[in-house]
Amino acid sequence: MNDARRVPLALEPPPSKLPRRIGFHAIRWLPLALLAAVTYVLYPDTGSTQAPLMEVGEVAQADVVAPFAFYVPKSPAEIQREADALAATVRPIYEFQPEAVDSVRATAVALFDALDATETDSTLADSAAAYGLRLSTEEAAFLFEGSRRAAYRSAALRMIDRELARGIVANATIDSETAREIIERRGETERVVARDAVLSLSTFLDRRSARHPEPNSVLGDQLHVRLLNTLFRPTLVPNTIETEALRAELRADVDSLKGLVRQNERIIGEHEVVTAAVQERLAALLNELSRRGGTGGVTLTGAIGKILTNALILSIFWLLLMLYRRETYGNARQMTMVGVLFGIVVLGAAAMVRLSAPAPELIPIPLAAMLIAIFFSGRVAMVAATVLAVLLASQHVYVTQAYYGDEAALYLALIGGVAAAVGIRAMRRRAQMLATMLIVAAAFAVAAIAIGLAADYEIARIGLTIMRGGGNAVVSAALASVALPVLENVSRLTTDLTLLELSNPTHPLVRRLATEAPGTYAHTIAVANLCEAGCNAIGANGLLARVGCYYHDIGKIKKPQFFVENQSGGTNPHDKLKPDVSATIIRNHVKEGMALADEAGLPDIVKAFIPEHHGTAEITYFLERARDRGDEPPADHYRYPGPKPRSVETAVAMLADGVEAALRVLNDPSPQDIREAIDHIVGQRVATGQLNDAPLTLAQLDRVKEEFSRVVSGVHHNRIDYPVRAGGIAAEWKPAARA
Predict the structure, then answer these.
(1) Which of 121, 525, 550, 611 fits 144 for a cystine, CB–CB 3.0-4.6 Å?
(2) CB 549 within 8 A of CB 527
(3) Interstrand relation of 168-169 and 199-200 (parallel, antiparallel or unpaired)
(4) Containing H/E element for 717?
(5) Which tops the pLDDT comparison, 721 or 81?
(6) Among the listed residues 414, 396, 419, 180, the one whose alpha carbon sits nearest the alpha carbon of residue 288
(7) Half-sphere exposure of 264 (CA within 13 A, CB side)
């Protein structure tokens, strides 16, 4: 039994065959390469242009007239210069920090308290060093004298209280300031101060003479400067965050456009000399033409680049299939169908933009999304719709200045496609197509109103978009209904609608089974109920499980009397046959079932239930009879041909078949008996390796067993005895003797 995440690629060659692996993947990526090239051909970045980019000083050979109105942008250098000029007008903000004054004063007091506590000049130097004040032996001896130290304390505290409290800036900060004025902020108060009037450390030291305790001593002045340097801390600090925010706000206000060139305005006349201003206009026109698809000429590198861009966008969906839908990726038919559906959308969009004005609400993405959701899943369809919307919204078709490449195209195409994927999801009824059509139309309407209000469209334009979106929804639903059986036949995929048709009891094979092998039919219905419940419990395809079980034993139609469920009593024909003959009859019901399935044209995923529900299990009853006779049976004669179950649904069908058959032999089983019997049957299948190829996890297996137990316990319920005298049947009831 394998982890569900380790299922190998269907049909993928072994890793050792490198050339075969390359060919395997090349076939599946070929539709993507073709799509990328076709998209480039349908949406080329080409078109004539009358805007050659001439050099300054060159003479124009012809008049250049603006074919439409466009703006001339400023160059990045111009925008930067204007932004810097505006930013320079901002006065930087400096905030006064009173806590810094308090901190410096506390440090000064602590320093002098430590110095006062020293007993020798050598210990005084050590105490000063602890506060960052490095004193020489001479300076320590000079400061050791008590009255002198008190004078330095007093001078330092006065400098702190009077000078630092005025606001002092670090030398490096004020020297690097380029603004002529600053804003000094003290709490809620602000004032404009000239940069030259701001006090700095140098100014702070220059004012020391007014508070100098030893003005006539060189050593004393040196000590005073060193002390103030040690204690100094800026109390006026730049608020760079707020200042830069103001500057950034002004930079953002710079207009990026230099001017407007109106439609039919002459940019330069024949024989005129190209100036710098004219060259800017020509460059702006060329850029606008490029944006609209008229870049003027095809180059090999440009074509390759555009095709690669298209391929990269499409590869998002191909990678999804390769990594997460490996059963689809492994099937070349299905990958080709995906490529065809994508191609229909690309061709349809190109036709729409050429036959009418560019209307993204007419792009047939909903058609592809509906079909992909029906064949694969709604999640896969949502990714497909997103990829197609991005691909087409990035294309330009310069036909009467029309193109899809704008935001409205992306939004409308994306919303319409996703709405189709969400609306269809699992297709179980024909009416779902009508509901999906209404959902897509409503999504287009809401998107049109939202975009119209945001872009200030006219009411008439919004209404036209809504009508086109509704038309797209109706046409997509109709085409999807018509294309569904064709694509189903070509791709050999089986939709839920086909499964529902096969589940009809009037199907010829089911009707034959019910009339020719009624016991097997009853067994089939019971197995189908079990299998569907088990698959639904673990997120597998319950509908496929039910339909597959309807046909898993159709081979018994050929010889119904040789199977015990069709024997209503009397002689068992196997009693007269050798064990090997009986085993051959039992084993051949698989082969005969496949023949009947081929004759009826059953889908492959339904036919897989016929051989896989037995796997390669032994036909134990007749094997034991042969051994009792003393025979040495061949290894494969008493074994079903297989293969083992290769899908979740066929694996659950094998378990349901064994559980249903085994529980028939239990007489009035209790819920505990039922659970133990189910555990035994499932454990036996696991032990013999029958589930080795099935993508079932142990957690899923436990959930299936719980669901089997619930369903079977519900079937084997107790009923009350009805009074015999009232015509009922009680436990002791016996039929009356015949006259």
Answers:
(1) 121
(2) yes
(3) parallel
(4) none
(5) 81
(6) 396
(7) 0
Tell me the two tokens of residue 1.
């039994």
Tell me which amino acid residue 481 is: S
Spatial neighbors of 332 by CB under 8 A, at least 6 apart, are 27, 28
The CA-CA-CA angle for residues 606, 611, 615, to 5°, reads 125
Question: How many other CB atoms are there within 10 angstroms of residue 308's CB atom?
Answer: 12
Residue with tokens 């649904």: 649
- Among 154, 178, 180, 177, which Cα is nearest to 236's? 177
The angle formed by the CA atoms of residues 514, 520 and 522, to the nearest 5 degrees, is 70
Would strands 257-261 and 168-169 be described as parallel, antiparallel, or unpaired? unpaired
Question: The pTM is what?
Answer: 0.55
| Locus of tokens 């993947």 | 25
- Does 719 or 97 have the greater pLDDT score? 97
Q: Is-contact 183 92, C-beta < 8 A?
A: yes
pLDDT tens-digit map of 389-404: 999 888 864 433 334 5
Query: Are the CB atoms for 476 and 440 separated by under 8 Å?
Result: yes
Listed residue (360, 345, 378, 349) closest to 444, CA to CA: 360
DSSP assignment of 33-44 equals: HHHHHHHHHHS-
End-to-end CA distance of the chain: 61
pLDDT at residue 535 tops 60:
yes
CA gap 561, 542 in Å, rounded: 31
At residue 96, the 3 state secondary structure works out as strand
Provide CB contacts within 8 A for 203, sequence distance 6+.
168
pLDDT value, residue 427: 57
Helix, strand, or coil (residue 121) = helix
Reference 443, options 352, 344, 361, 382; nearest CA is: 361
Q: How confident is the model at residue 299 (pLDDT cuts 50, 70, 90)?
A: low
CA pair distance 643, 689, nearest whole angstrom? 12
Phi and psi of 200, rounded to 5°?
Answer: -125, 180
From CA 512, how far away is CA 508, in angstroms rounded? 6
CB 126 within 8 A of CB 154: no
Among 643, 682, 681, CA closest to 662: 681
Q: Enter the tokens of residue 620.
A: 């134990």
Whether the pLDDT of residue 297 is over 80: the answer is: no
List the Cα angle 540/546/548 in 5-degree steps.
Answer: 95
Q: How many Cα atoms occupy the beta-carbon half-sphere of 279 within 13 Å?
A: 11
Do the bridges between strand 64-65 and strand 266-268 make them parallel or antiparallel, or are there none, so unpaired? antiparallel
What is the average pLDDT value for the chain, to the nearest integer? 82
Q: For residue 92, give Cα distances in angstroms to 86, 100, 173, 192, 708.
A: 13, 20, 12, 10, 77
